[in-house]
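Table 4 source record.
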Amino acid sequence: MTRVRIFSLACLAVAFIAAGCSTSEEPAEPDKPDSGGDVEESARGGSADVPQPPPPNPFLADSVVPIGHFDTAQSDTQVHAGPVGPTQDLTQDDLQYTHLGPGHFGMAISPEYPDGTRVIWSNGGDRISKLDYETLEVLAELPVGDKTLLDEATADGHVDQLDSLSGQALADAGLDLAINYLVGLAGVYYMLDSDNTLFVGGSESILAYNDVDPDDPDSEIQLRDEWVKPPEVGGKFAGANMTYDGRVAMITDEGWLVVVTRDFSDWEAIQLVGAEQAPAHNAAMAEAGNRPGSADWVRNSIAIDPDGGIYAVSLDHAHKVIWDGEKLSTDEADGAWVAQYSNTSTLGSGATPSLMGFGDAEDHFMVLTDGDTVMNMVFMWRDDIPDGWEPPEGAPSDRVAGQLPADMGDDAIEAIQTEQSVVLGGYGAMVVNNQPTSSPPDFPAFGNRILVGYAGADPAFTPKGVQKFEWDPDAKELREAWVNNDVSSANSVPVMSLGSGLVYTVGARDGGWTLEGIDWDTGESAFHWGTGSGRYNSLFSGVMVDQDGRVIHTTAFGIVRYVPANAEAG
């Protein structure tokens, strides 16, 4: 197998991403938690009205982090406040760190146990982990299949090696780690339900994990059930979410959408429009050397609204499927639709769709980045297209409400893409640049993601640029709000805190890793915390704010929480 072929297999497109039985009695809605560089400015405009965040899904865990992108809308937004500074370099005393093994791309915080405590669940490449919420002590682990658990000493050795290298040698070491630990990884997307059951999408099945003793946070973990998809449902699971009537919804890379009761006793499935071409497309991509997931017909997860709309992105199109509580429909008469988006790269969008606007008087959108070589920020009308609507020039569908190049303010840029979902807040939508500054001579273009993964802190590779767009509901127009080309969001999925008005992401400065706080309104850097070591590299995982307003995220081999004694609360 050639080096190019191996590298292609290693290149990941990681987007992001309940009790043991189904119930007809809807639980009470969880309480909402308390809210607590140089910048290019454009004409921002817009209304003072701020769209409401999505209503909490009562079937997800009653916590601030029940699912990878925080809510069924996949908004990457949290209501409560995180830290606001000050800028400083952190020591190990300022960081809680726990080893978890490879392939942990997110976490979920449990509902309260009878004794008032919570735990943190995380699914990884070799194990399911459960940690004490306060201390991050591992309470229980369950190996995945017949996997051998990677020990902490070996993981620390890998980190020490990465920290000692730069340039080509660092890129090569990162490639080796990707081959060893990330190739063939399944079960990236997950969610924790209101009864503290963790649902994970595997390659061919949906897995449900919970406590042997549901009242004991120290309990061992068990595989409660496994729902194996029938032969007619083609493809491997690529995304997960929860309907507002408490069913597990997952999509495969061949465009099959499945809705399953949480006790796995009943299910419905439907193909997305055009999905009959998916098997041939995915086979051709694999033959061309693309790792499954990096250019599949469906690459990302799904978003769900409170009214039964399920939103997906396929190779060239955005889709709305209707779930009415009994059946799935792709029929326009039921409110479903399909809309084309631009895809000059031929690889499709790298973003999980995000939903904006939930009040009756607000504009409602499905938001994504498209598949153009220089990607566009795209707003699509989520419900009915307004009468007489004229889409922007060059838009491939009448459903497009706004479309602008996400070029980080550089009209001359030749290629830019992201593997993260769009971060929403109000009528604002932010996207990050995941394109490395340069690549080693023998690395193919499709290997760029691994560079910003393990090697993103090296100044030779560090991607720069964060860009926000904003919808003007009065003018019915999408505009650029700001660009910051000094800050880096190397590989993480950022989070926007409505409570503090900041975006948090993992970036890099001067060859070391950082936690970055960026002002949502202006784009200016509010503060940064230097961590230095690749031990705290987010490696495509989502940054989150916990129940107590502290930033936390998984890493290349573990999980870290930022707890500096002088942290200022938002």
